[in-house]
Specification:
Layout (H helix, E strand, L loop, with lengths): L9 H17 L2 H5 L1 H23 L3 H27 L5 H36 L1
Length: 129
């Protein structure tokens, strides 16, 4: 069954959940007042879902893979910023673990999807020979 809309992608759904989690965390306490870190982590987390969608809408596997790699990179950026937030006590260990685990999960799923799309392309090229 072919996916028709980006809304059907589990990686997109998970990235939205993570985005909400980040926005909730950054809206309170000292985190909400640290405009630099708050805005940067929000931009990075929004970049995950945005790049998944932009790549999907290109209707081209090469472009989709390129944008998925950017989304995966953004998930790493958010993880780094979470480490900073933890180090300066904007979040506690439990909050860190919860979101970090989700970020690792989405990065792994994106990575798996990249491999799938690349193999699909190689199989098509092999069949053309």
């Amino acid at each position: 069954m072919k996916i028709q809309k980006f809304e059907e992608l589990n990686i997109w759904k998970l990235s939205l959940t993570i985005t909400k989690n980040i926005y909730d965390l950054t809206a309170r306490g000292n985190f909400s007042k640290d405009y630099g870190l708050r805005d940067q982590i929000r931009r990075a987390v929004v970049s995950i879902s945005s790049n998944i969608v932009e790549g999907f809408e290109k209707n081209n596997n090469n472009e989709f893979v390129r944008f998925l790699k950017i989304a995966k990179g953004s998930s790493g950026e958010v993880r780094n910023q979470l480490y900073i937030a933890l180090a300066i006590n904007y979040i506690n260990q439990e909050e860190f673990n919860n979101i970090n685990n989700k970020l690792e999960d989405v990065a792994n799923q994106i990575g798996g999807f990249i491999v799938y799309l690349q193999k699909k392309k190689l199989n098509k090229e092999f069949l053309k020979k």
